[in-house]
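All the exercises in this workshop are built on plain-text protein records. Instead of coordinates, the fold is spelled out as a row of discrete tokens. Once this layout is familiar, the rest of the handout is easier to follow. The record below serves as our worked example for the rest of this section.
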Amino acid sequence: MTMTNANHRDPADQPRPLRIIAAGTSAVTLILGGLPTVGVPLTPEVTGWLMGVIGALSGLAVALFGERKVTPVASPRDQDGHALTPDTSEATR
């Protein structure tokens, strides 16, 4: 079953906001975690604390920013807030 929407695109062409947000937070983690290896004087305790904070904030960022950019399965809506409904013109198989 498909959902009708005037702006329907091929799923392969859909943006992947959660992947983009997760990749961004992973890059920040990688950069900050690697600072001691390039001569930034951070103690192991500070580095560990930074990684813990970044890990917690990464999950929060994916949830807060990503949630606004994906269609919920329970109540799908288009960008204008109109409910998406099943496409009844599609033949059943």
The helical segments are 17-34, 44-67.
